[in-house]
Amino acid sequence: MRRPRSGRKLGKKARLAASSQASTVEFRYGVSFISVEQAEKNLRHEIPQWGFDRIKDAAKDRWNATLGRIAVEGGTEAQRKVFYTALYRCFERMINISEDGQYYSAFDHKVHRDPRPFYVDNWLWDTFRALEPLQTLLNPDVQADKIQSYVRMYQQSGIMPTFALAQGNNACMNGNHSAPWIADAWFKGVRNFDLATAYEGVRKRSLEDTLLPWRLGPKGPLDDFYNAHGYMPALRPGERETDPHVHPFEKRQPVPVTLENSLDDWDIAQLARVLNKQDDEKLFLERAANYKHLFREDKELMWPKDADGKWIEPLDPKFSGGMGGRDYYDENNGYTYTWDVAQDFNGLFAMMGGTAKAEANLDQLFREPLGRSKYEFQGKFPDSTSMIGQFSMGNEPSLAIPYIYNRLGAPWKTEKRVRMLLDAFFPDSLHGIPGDEDGGGMSAFVVFSMLGFYPVTPGIPTYDIGSPIFEKATIHLKNGKDFVIVGRNTSRDNKYVQSVRLNGQPLNQIWFRHAEIANGGTLEITMGNSPNRDLGADPASFPPDSLETRPENFLQ
Amino acid sequence: MRRPRSGRKLGKKARLAASSQASTVEFRYGVSFISVEQAEKNLRHEIPQWGFDRIKDAAKDRWNATLGRIAVEGGTEAQRKVFYTALYRCFERMINISEDGQYYSAFDHKVHRDPRPFYVDNWLWDTFRALEPLQTLLNPDVQADKIQSYVRMYQQSGIMPTFALAQGNNACMNGNHSAPWIADAWFKGVRNFDLATAYEGVRKRSLEDTLLPWRLGPKGPLDDFYNAHGYMPALRPGERETDPHVHPFEKRQPVPVTLENSLDDWDIAQLARVLNKQDDEKLFLERAANYKHLFREDKELMWPKDADGKWIEPLDPKFSGGMGGRDYYDENNGYTYTWDVAQDFNGLFAMMGGTAKAEANLDQLFREPLGRSKYEFQGKFPDSTSMIGQFSMGNEPSLAIPYIYNRLGAPWKTEKRVRMLLDAFFPDSLHGIPGDEDGGGMSAFVVFSMLGFYPVTPGIPTYDIGSPIFEKATIHLKNGKDFVIVGRNTSRDNKYVQSVRLNGQPLNQIWFRHAEIANGGTLEITMGNSPNRDLGADPASFPPDSLETRPENFLQ
How crowded is the C-beta side of A275, counted as CA atoms within 13 Å? Predict the structure, then answer.
């Protein structure tokens, strides 16, 4: 980050105050990425008048207006506190760093004139799942600005970022998650950005840049292997690293690199179709199925493979792979990653042997013993916290997992699990966050889940129905319309969905389209204390997510 | 445990049921420690009539009657659930194993005729602090039977137990905690047991048995050292164990062995005075001060010393000592044990440099950084969980710590801390227990603290006032009288005690005597949302606990 050269003026004022023996010193300061002069302009502009209380009150008003975008009624006081605290955290990022129609970009180290706001600071690995979809719902106009900022960064640096900070691109985590972020926004109607250039950026990152974790730059031999064979190869136990570009601590992370890029490539394929690039669409749809290379049928788990195509053995999918499992997985173990295929749950279920077998496996995920002491497990997987069996509530790759039951004819298990997770792991106390919060990444799960719906697959403009906490929640959309969710008879015991009406009509499924509520609407969910096992039991009523799903079919 | 030789009869009946193609099989079985014939008698006696629902209803009635001994009004539904769940766990143990006027004792492997019930199964290291005082308040008659059971075990085995299981004595943890259990009950009016023999047992364990952790039997050279020098010596880093009797995993635990036996010996001294054994009283009062040998003034912490009287160095009081710190401490580190001197808080404060310094140290306990990652800490101290600074809510040696502020003129900090701890660590969810529950040992902290009073020093028949959760709580005492605690205006915000009335009279202190409520009484605590800093600020109003305290002065 380029800093103004001096804090000289501030220093003078502080000395003056000290000599006056004042008991309270109030001061204001400006910040600029451009110049000291601009910092002073920013100060005059942003804090035009003295007064700590005045500034505090103004900030409070702004926050009240922002949090007031969603008005909830019912629930307990504790639940309302949890909800608004989570919503508050969902507005932490991104940050508009434009200053009077110009901005300093650390992506080309230049000051640019641009009337449009320039946003930095998001962590897409954590936020593409739930936070960005929430922002797309609440502030589609701002999402366009944020995506266009990414387009600018790509134009300025040649790399489509995934962790764009104020100080430039951050080689962090794995994946190409600007693709699902952008596709999800596009199919929910966000249009005011340069899609063609955005597409060029995510396509280049997938095909020409390296997919190695925590690295940015051109592809190397392991990426060539990936492009040829459709998976990132793992080293055999004891085998020395062959590629000097592999991060010495972060390792290859071969399973999540393969799975997450499969999802990202699926979203690129959808954008390719929008742009009428048929060859690309075909290529990226093929790459979207790469995850299948790492599903080990005899174990019914995602499993790393060596360069010869042999399964890595010996391997404990709960615990192997060194710190955070990074030799094979990343922060989470093989149990969590087995479900990380939101672009093709149907394909996963088929490989598992059908929905009944998949449901049994999903049940078992929440029961499967840790296999060792808690502290031994946490010592190696400090980010995979708040475990229920092998399910971790403390890290983002798990967020959609409880909603998978909706695809298995057992939405009552989604409802039960989500309620239990909210109740157990997001209390109104100092234990309010069960693990990695990541700038709103986890809090968005809370906001959506408490409201009673959830965006399971980034890129498909639909929402799953969950288990609403509040008797009524009103989302004041940016277009002036309201989307109202009514949780009739909802209570701690009444956690099961009995019936659903959307915009006055009965809905015999447990999902709905973004287009059905984007111009206002009402979702009425009648709740009861025992499951309605008929609702959502018919496969024809399952939420849509498979490789063949075409998001454009859900636009209205 | 001696088992009946056969389950033959049950097996026959199960086969019969299977051949009848019944969809539900109901069966009953009896258990005996004495004989198969006695097992059948027990069965006929305890389950006289068939019917699962009938037995279930009878059990439910018994539990309702038991939990109904305390009736609470007000608080949230969640708080009432937490309270009664905690109270339920306080009735898990001890277990009456008498069978028709006789019992099998694993302490001499004989069957004894005895009209009095014989109780087994308690874990005094965990329960002498809060659970046994709760049982003494609720069921003094049963406590007499339980203590007399310990007297019998001592008579049968020659060892006063501390963890008396059905299968005999269990060499577990450290200390001689039947002494504070028995003294606490005695000074609260429990008389129907053989005090002289009980005294003989605890005296023998202190002076003639080994104090080594997880060992029972005669004393050895380290105990001779303790008796001569007043502390258990620690090995220097790298020094090999000299005494083969030291448990290879549990080690010497020199600091807690010294501290906990100091407390236990203080209670023995009090019983010696009851029995008019003046030499013993003097001896045990001297031993009660042994803890002072391990207070390191330059560090203001309890610290291990070698056999030459030198402080062990290098030592990190947060983390040294191997697994669970057992080379020096036990399950918890030096920060927790520094406060483990309930028999003489005044002495501790004096060594720290006065109450103001002690208060600052106590504040710092809750702030002092872990100094390392959570998983590194928990990997070595898996029982010292739910940390706030260096305070652990997850283990019993911490239970009285938040109440220490009452002895420092700052009861509002006790009130604030206790509320925060209850709120954060004992929710109405699957996280309801923050660490080691230990057969009610931790739950009794919850029961007392939610009621608004706490027995800080076992052996002194007084209670500290805390911060009541309920508007009204009625304890139906065994003598037919009621002790009523009124929490006027109590709420989540109104956690601070404003004023107290006991049995209609204003009380200008934050403690009261057991005798004042044992025959019924009313404690009215008026609550508010900011501290009344005058109440309990005068040293003359502090709760009594120092080496010189005479419990008999608080008997009425």
Answer: 21
Phi first, then psi, for residue B201 (nearest 5°) are -65, -45
Whether residue B309 is predicted with pLDDT greater than 90 in this model: the reply is yes
**Cα–Cα distances in angstroms (integers) from residue B45 to residues A164, B40, B42, B104, B443, in the given order:** 75, 8, 5, 18, 32
Test A378 with B379 for CB contact under 8 angstroms. yes
Task: For residues A37 and A46, give the distance between their C-alpha atoms in angstroms, rounded to a whole number.
Answer: 14
Query: What is the rounded CA–CA span in Å between residue B340 and residue B348?
Result: 10
- pLDDT at position A1 over 70: no
Question: CA end-to-end span of chain A, whole Å?
Answer: 44
Q: Does B431 touch chain A (CB under 8 A)?
A: yes
Can you tell me the distance from the alpha carbon of A359 to that of A343, in angstroms, rounded to the nearest whole number? Answer: 18
d(CA B510, CA B499) in angstroms, rounded, equals 9
Cα B137 from Cα B116, distance rounded (Å): 21
Q: Which residue, among B53, B137, B121, has the nearest Cα to B87 in the 3D structure? A: B137
Reported as a pLDDT band with limits 50, 70 and 90, residue B23 is: confident
Q: Does B373 lie at the interface with A, CB-CB under 8 angstroms? A: yes
- C-alpha to C-alpha distances, A480 to A448, A521, B455, nearest whole angstrom: 20, 12, 60
The answer to whether residues A154 and A136 touch, using CB atoms and an 8 Å cutoff, is no
Q: Which two tokens stand for residue B162?
A: 């501390």
How far apart, in whole angstroms, are the C-alpha atoms of residue B9 and residue B4?
A: 12
Give the single-character DSSP code of B234: P
Side chain identity at residue B203, one-letter code: R
Q: What percent of chain B has pLDDT over 70?
A: 96
A271: enclosing H helix or E strand: helix A254-274
- If DSSP codes are grouped into helix, strand and coil, which group holds residue B496? strand
CA–CA distances in Å: residue A196 to residues A202, A268, A277? 10, 12, 11
Confidence check: pLDDT of A411 > 90:
yes
Distance CA B464, CA B552 (A): 17
Of A76, A379, A424, the CB nearest to B379: A379
Q: Report which DSSP code applies to A422.
A: H
**H-helix or E-strand containing B415?**
helix B411-425
Give how far the C-alpha of residue B400 lies from the chain's centroid of Cα atoms, to the nearest Å: 10
pTM of the model: 0.89
Find out whether A260 and A288 touch, Cβ atoms under 8 Å: no
Q: Can you list the pairs that B112-118 forms with residues at least 24 positions away whose Cβ atoms lie under 8 Å? A: B112/B152, B114/B152, B116/B145, B116/B148, B117/B145, B117/B149, B118/B149, B118/B152
- Per-residue confidence at A11, pLDDT binned at 50, 70, 90? very low
Query: Count of residues for chain B?
Result: 556
B520 shares contact with chain A (CB less than 8 Å): no
B424 vs A429: CB contact, 8 Å cut-off? yes
Q: Whose CA is closest to A425, among A399, A404, A451, A459?
A: A399
Report d(CA A190, CA A334) in Å as an integer.
35
Partners of B382 on chain A (C-beta within 8 Å) are 373-375
Residue B281 half-sphere exposure toward CB, CA atoms < 13 A: 13
CA angle A106, A108, A113 (to 5 degrees): 85
- CA B260 vs CA B99, B205, B289, B290, B458: distances in Å: 36, 13, 11, 10, 12
Beta bridge partners of A302: A295
C-alpha A275/C-alpha A281 separation (Å) is 9
SS3 category, A164? strand
Bridge partners of residue B484, in order along the sequence: B474, B522
Q: Do B375 and A374 touch (CB under 8 A)?
A: no
pLDDT range class, residue B11, cuts 50, 70, 90: very low
CA distances to A13, A17, A25, A26, A481 from A21, rounded to whole Å, are: 13, 7, 9, 13, 55
